[in-house]
């Protein structure tokens, strides 16, 4: 496994903090409503003040790659003008990574954007957001031309467009919210294509990829109706966006489903040319668990479900074959990650990197240690499946667990933790944010040293 990128991931708004420091503008994630008693993102894991310490911990861990994200509002506070102090903050992170032989893999868009652009024109609801995103990407590409080898466009686009508290587009009408989600997603796909093409014009040697939350979907039974329902669920939740990213169009099935839902996005002349103009160099996979669906016999859309689970074609149901935990309610399914690699490569024939894969738990710090055997078991089982696919010849070039350190969860604060490193704070008490290495840290260090052998 020559040059396999053993890495780890975070995202800007979930670790940085310093929300009003260094010239940063307000992000959509800074102004959203957070339930009382749950930590917000204003301090998060305080990476803003601890990034040097954190990168030295990454060096100790032996990381070959660090996948993180820029906060758009730190680089362009109003969405239009550049904040040099913000660029310099990320440049320090990038240069320190490089000094320690860690490849920085930045994501341009990870669940947040300048609130100013939402106030100005509705964010991704407007086509104006396409040009704003392209301009932002241009600033980044020019700044780190020849420095960054792998870029990521948008993290988990469907979820980013579905979660109104992250994208700033609040809509009480659930039907209109669902319609908006697919329109915003379409705009993001156009923006992504323009950005891919732009990078090749600025830095011909750099590679750019997309990162998707993938849903390995099982049919509840072997009935033909349940099997078709599972196929439809995968079309919408996994292939729809990747088809757009790689092929520049929706599948016939997705077109039919969206038209039947009255959610087919409004297009303009020239869009098809943009969508066909470029494609990603690689695909990033975010995988935590699989889901199970059955036929939606009444063919009614349940608008109480998360937006990307809403369909008249299928109904999400429990999978009785999987072990479930408090935070992993869909069940733990290591084989699912190998199945996903097969499916994604067989459909798109592009190199793959696992950009997120992790075990959520309410970790407890005792005597300055966290004995997270459950996380070690989860990661070990999943890494084995990833390496098996690689041994079979599938071009998997990296693995990044979520997350390097404990991050503030989008909706559950610090009660839900994923990190290899514990951050000493609670939802209601920021404390000192001191870093403590969990047992999983030492375990992963050995995995990297052995390059995954004898796991």
Automatic annotation (TrEMBL):
<comment type="similarity">
    <text>Belongs to the glycosyl hydrolase 1 family.</text>
</comment>
<dbReference type="InterPro" id="IPR018120">
    <property type="entry name" value="Glyco_hydro_1_AS"/>
</dbReference>
<feature type="active site" description="Nucleophile">
    <location>
        <position position="356"/>
    </location>
</feature>
<protein>
    <submittedName>
        <fullName>Glycoside hydrolase family 1 protein</fullName>
    </submittedName>
</protein>
<dbReference type="GO" id="GO:0008422">
    <property type="term" value="F:beta-glucosidase activity"/>
</dbReference>
<dbReference type="Pfam" id="PF00232">
    <property type="entry name" value="Glyco_hydro_1"/>
</dbReference>
<dbReference type="GO" id="GO:0016052">
    <property type="term" value="P:carbohydrate catabolic process"/>
</dbReference>
<keyword id="KW-0326">Glycosidase</keyword>
<dbReference type="InterPro" id="IPR001360">
    <property type="entry name" value="Glyco_hydro_1"/>
</dbReference>
<dbReference type="InterPro" id="IPR017853">
    <property type="entry name" value="GH"/>
</dbReference>
<keyword id="KW-0378">Hydrolase</keyword>
<dbReference type="GO" id="GO:0005829">
    <property type="term" value="C:cytosol"/>
</dbReference>
<dbReference type="InterPro" id="IPR033132">
    <property type="entry name" value="GH_1_N_CS"/>
</dbReference>
């Amino acid at each position: 496994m020559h040059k396999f990128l053993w890495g780890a991931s975070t995202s800007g708004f979930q670790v940085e903090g310093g929300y009003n420091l260094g010239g940063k503008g307000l992000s959509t994630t800074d102004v959203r409503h957070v339930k009382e008693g749950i930590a917000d993102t204003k301090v998060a894991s305080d990476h803003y003040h601890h990034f040097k310490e954190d990168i030295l911990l990454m060096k100790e861990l032996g990381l070959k790659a660090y996948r993180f994200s820029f906060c758009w509002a730190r680089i362009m506070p109003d969405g239009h003008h550049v904040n040099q102090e913000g660029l310099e903050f990320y440049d320090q992170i990038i240069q320190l990574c490089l000094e320690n032989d860690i490849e920085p893999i930045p994501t341009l868009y990870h669940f947040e954007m300048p609130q100013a652009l939402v106030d100005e024109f509705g964010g991704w609801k407007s086509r104006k957001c396409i040009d704003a995103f392209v301009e932002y990407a241009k600033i980044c590409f020019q700044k780190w031309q020849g420095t960054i080898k792998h870029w990521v466009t948008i993290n988990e686009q469907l979820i980013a467009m579905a979660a109104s508290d992250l994208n700033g587009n609040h809509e009480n009408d659930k039907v209109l919210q669902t319609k908006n989600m697919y329109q915003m997603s379409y705009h993001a796909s156009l923006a992504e294509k323009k950005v891919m093409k732009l990078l090749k014009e600025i830095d011909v040697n750099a590679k750019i990829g997309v990162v998707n939350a993938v849903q390995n979907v099982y049919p509840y039974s072997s009935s033909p109706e349940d099997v078709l329902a599972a196929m439809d669920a995968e079309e919408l939740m996994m292939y729809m966006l990747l088809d757009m990213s790689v092929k520049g169009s929706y599948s016939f099935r997705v077109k039919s489903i969206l038209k039947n839902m009255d959610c087919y996005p409004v297009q303009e002349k020239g869009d098809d040319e943009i969508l066909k103009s470029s494609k990603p160099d690689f695909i990033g996979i975010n995988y935590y668990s699989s889901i199970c669906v059955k036929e939606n016999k009444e063919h009614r859309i349940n608008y109480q479900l998360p937006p990307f689970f809403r369909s008249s074609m299928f109904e999400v149901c429990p999978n009785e074959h999987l072990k479930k935990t408090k935070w992993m309610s869909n069940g733990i399914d290591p084989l699912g990650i190998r199945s996903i690699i097969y499916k994604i490569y067989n459909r798109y024939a592009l190199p793959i990197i696992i950009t997120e894969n992790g075990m959520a738990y309410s970790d407890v710090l005792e005597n300055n240690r966290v004995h997270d055997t459950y996380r070690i078991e989860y990661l070990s089982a999943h890494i084995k499946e990833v390496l098996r696919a690689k041994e079979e010849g599938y071009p998997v070039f990296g693995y990044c667990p979520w997350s390097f350190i404990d991050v503030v969860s989008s909706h559950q604060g610090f009660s839900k933790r994923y990190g290899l490193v514990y951050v000493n704070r609670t939802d209601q008490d920021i404390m000192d944010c001191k870093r403590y290495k969990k047992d999983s840290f030492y375990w992963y260090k050995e995995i990297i040293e052995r390059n995954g052998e004898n796991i």
